[in-house]
Amino acid sequence: MKQTELTELATELANRVLFTTKEVLTSDETAKYMGVSKSYLYKLTMNKIIPHYKPTGKVVYFNRLEVEQWLQSNRVSSANELKERVNVYCAKGGVV
Q1: CATH no. for residue 86?
Q2: Is 1 among the domain residues?
């Protein structure tokens, strides 16, 4: 590899490490982290659906851990999990 390629690779690696260890994310970083467009993230913030911070009243920041928790909220059970619940329910005679 050429020196320029190594430098570019090192820079990209450093950015990825920083991105995954950084606690506070910008809107751009959060949209990229979530895999959504900035306009969709903007809608989520305007409708107060996703937790966010505005320390100066204008620029929006996100806590990476809170974003992860929000992304993992409202879990949908798999078909196998639902079948197991039905089996347990029926085994108890229909009593919760």
Answers
A1: 1.10.10
A2: no
